[in-house]
């Protein structure tokens, strides 16, 4: 049985087992199963997390230096950022449009959430200006500190600089270039091993998620959850595939077949960072993206490009405004979009990261940050789908960028094969 099939079966059984566990809460069976599931999922997630920092560093160094050596770097990064901005803007527009269309939050009795909001105190206010200052202060830091703390954005910036400097140094640094290349391949070998654990890990993660979430709260916010999930799926199943087909010349079905291991993992882990090793592997092996492009676009996208998160934050801001009966004017909605874009840029690829940066979006137009207390109980469930779309966006953009980069292909053979 192929790994793809094993993963899909594991996902279905995981969800089913989670529901089964929900039938026996507070039992010995529930407790010991949850313990075993937590153990199995932390082996899988832990192995992926172990690889993130060395993989991000080596893949960006190798990707940038190979692209730069082939004279493609300036073109590639421009196309990459253009794609990031375009897809995020479309996601934001879609989020706002659907929130308006379905009038999410209108007619819900806000007093039923009053105690949750009161209990939730947000200590500091988070303005876009302070957020940007923090962002810069946390990014330009001692790289060793960044490695040890797993500060991925700082690792990305340092790796980008090393990649460019390597090429500018020319032959002097060929040993380090080879070393990075080999180190990267070594990491990918480990990724291949971890992938074999994916069926067990995904089974455990999904069963644990379903068993430990209070599904009943979903019903109170069912309409909002359905609109956000439906819109996110529309972005992932219609908008992004259309762009892929138009600009990447790839059939969406072929993409989904090649990307499904990464997509199912994103769903189960709600973490685009933890999924990143598998996204790179799928893009290289199944989607035919050249290693240097996948190694540059995907780690960068994992940090900076989050369509699902941006869409969610825009829709949630409108939901909160409707809930408290505030009509946001056009300028305020523009501010929401801009802040949500910055927020998705700065959100780390970990579970519920979007909820933290969401405070900034709410505060940008004077909405009460405590309102996130209403959304928190359902966030873990909504996070699954938006993380899939975050990961999907990065992989699709790597296909598009690779196609455009190849149009000006003058790479020497050695670089292409590396
Ligand atoms: N969990 C998301 C991700 O890893 C981030 C978010 O919370 O929106 O991509």
The percent range for helix content is over 70%
Task: Give every kind of bound small molecule, once each.
Answer: aspartic acid
What's the pLDDT, averaged over the residues? 87
Terminus-to-terminus distance:
31 Å
Rg calculated over all Cα atoms: 22 Å
Give the overall shape, derived from the CA principal axes: globular
Low-confidence stretches: 410-418
Describe this structure in words.
The structure is a single chain. Helix content is 81%, strand content 0%. The chain starts with a helix and ends with a helix. The C terminus is likely disordered. With 418 residues, the chain is mostly helical. Aspartic acid (ASP) binds next to helix 16 and helix 17.
Topology at a glance:
Layout: H1 3-22, H2 28-69, H3 73-101, H4 114-119, H5 128-139, H6 143-149, H7 152-169, H8 174-212, H9 216-220, H10 222-248, H11 252-269, H12 272-285, H13 291-304, H14 307-323, H15 330-346, H16 353-364, H17 372-407, H18 413-417
The chain binds aspartic acid.
Aspartic acid (ASP) binds next to helix 16 and helix 17.
How would you concisely characterize the structure shown here?
The chain is mainly alpha-helical and 418 residues long. The chain is built from 18 helices and no strands. The C terminus is likely disordered.
